[in-house]
Amino acid sequence: MLANGVLGEGSSTVHHGYLANIAGLLLLERTTPALRSCESRFTIRGTGLRSTSFGNAAGGRWEGTYRYFIIEDANGDSQIVSLAVLGQMLVRNDPVFGNTNGRTMLVVAVDDFDTRHNSLQLDLDRFVEVEDGVVTVWHDGTLTCGKKGAARRSEVLEFVRRKAPHLMDDDRVQLGSIPADRPARWEDADRLIVNTVEYALVRDAFRAFVAGRTRQ
User: Fold this and answer.
1) Which of 125, 134, 155, 195 would bridge 103 by S-S if both were Cys, CB 3.0 to 4.6 A apart?
2) How many domains are there within the chain?
């Protein structure tokens, strides 16, 4: 996986086991999970793999094999949310990218058929806890609003607390867990997948609010 760009060169070898487990879940599971968000805000009605790339606010592009999920909301409207585990470039004093640590990222992209972009790039070396054979993924609310730059984390977390309170635990966004001591299956990762999808959508709702396109 390291040679194929899935794991970052800068990721500690101590982390390779759980990183490969998360990547394997997205790349190797073949069936479509029957998943529904809390309060039935959306359902996942299809999934598959696709090789593509998505841009981010910094002008970079994340290219690789993504597991896509077709999301249908309560109004019957659909969009695609794609997840991939990809290695970040490891560079020092690059004239374009500066310094990057080459860690392994969970990239979550949203495609609503009009626009497509990264909603979340989560550092899987940082925002993961491993304890008693369980891998738990979380996030601190860091978010960039395009040309407006970084948003205040306190404002992002408060927005998530209002829109999806079940994701919040104190000042952390808790995304879910998978087993650390065996290959994960969809039934192990249902909350992780659903919560990650929902978090990406809430992050985009925050961006729309900051841009003045929606009311809070």
Assistant:
1) 125
2) 1
